[in-house]
Amino acid sequence: MADAGLTGQDTETKGQAPRRLPSVHAVLREAGLAQALASFGHAMSVAAVREVLARARSTGRGLDAAAAAGETVDALHAAQQSRLRPLFNLTGTILHTNLGRALIAQEAIDAAVQAMRHAVALEFDLDSGKRGERDDLLRDILRELTGAEDATVVNNNAAAVLLTLNSLGQGKGAIVSRGELIEIGGAFRMPDIMARAGARLVEVGTTNRTHLRDYEGAIDAETGLILKVHTSNYRIEGFTASVPADRLAGLARARGIALVDDLGSGTLVDLAQFGLPHEPTVREAVAAEADIVTFSGDKLLGGPQAGFIVGRKDLIARINANPMKRALRVDKMRLAAIEATLRLYRDPERLVRKLPTLRSLARPLAGIEACARRLAPAFPPPVMAQVTPCASQVGSGAVPRETIPSFGLALRGVPAETLAAAFRALPMPVIGRISEGTLLLDLRCLEDEAAFLANLAALPDRLANPR
What we know:
Elements: H1 24-28, H2 34-40, H3 42-59, H4 65-80, E1 88-89, H5 106-117, E2 124-125, E3 130-131, H6 136-146, E4 150-154, H7 157-169, E5 173-177, E6 183-184, E7 188-189, H8 190-197, E8 200-204, H9 212-218, E9 223-229, H10 245-255, E10 258-262, H11 282-287, E11 292-296, E12 307-311, H12 313-320, H13 324-327, H14 332-344, H15 348-354, H16 356-362, H17 365-375, E13 384-392, E14 404-412, H18 416-424, E15 430-431, E16 433-435, E17 438-442, H19 449-456, H20 459-464
Parallel strand pairs: 1-15, 5-8, 5-9, 9-10, 10-11
Antiparallel strand pairs: 2-3, 4-12, 6-7, 11-12, 13-14, 14-17, 16-17
Helix pairs in contact: 2-3, 3-4, 5-14, 6-14, 7-8, 15-16
């Protein structure tokens, strides 16, 4: 007996002859659906069959049972595919926020898998047999790498700034240069974060010039802290002035208030060795005697998403005592991956080889060009690939005005938007960038050439049958 509403013949629509459709049971009896039934179960399979038949009915298509079974199998597999698809990042932006930022080192992946697979001593002291603190897992290595007295970690740097401001500045004035009142992606605006933290924004200086006397004149009995913000996603050039952290630290210390230095991206190594401008390192910020320094884990540091707070022991204790800390804490998988990433920094000689972010930054230009020349002949007609010099960028707000020489493939023969859509529809999507009407694939971040070439085999079908 056919399911209600899914009879063997479709109803006639205005101006269109009726098209026959099989019953749900007829489709389920097809041999082509047997494996899917075993893999996905009866309920999911029935739902998928109903969807396939409903879609055919709505468009007036006719289907026999075998064809409906084939479409059902495809629909079941598509529904089981993760929305978080692996892809090739050939945009030229190494730390692309929309594509997940830093790739994780194998050591960190292994550590996270172990933490997922086993019970771990997350908040348990194995020596005493009593309850422990999860911060103890990272405290020593963060102190070692940064020179700070103490350290804690939360789930991202926005959380680190929010928690710090709430802990040290709630109900008090927080002095910030007007030139540092940044907005970054995702509607993160420093004035809004300060308001949510309960701190009262006190703006000093002008957009392009702020002097020490501006800070001095703003301090009063209601001041809780001075906040210095690294303008990671923009630069003001020309007639400018700003106050370095060490001078602000001296002022804050003399007036008995805290200096919080938000580095934003934050790095544990000097980027100058990769041909980029020097960015202040976390150790330098701590050495400049900032009381608290905050920075990210998933940007230049090259680890999983995290926000680090390092600095004075007494202030870190106040931050950890804040009830908000529990809402912002990091789980065992990320803690394991963070610890493994930080351990790599103990071995500077092998760091670039093991940390994907630094490996991409340091990749020799000649090697990228050679990769482009190997891949160029592999593109199927009508796509034509031309080796071309291009420029990569770090991304995620780090050194925004600086680029790194690179090589890529300029693809022609098919309209750029059509070609970009076809590459996004590949089994492993390929994301490039469109420049002057041409799809450009920057190869700086491509490491698995064999997987990329195997992926290209599906390109002709995607061009012929766009989604």
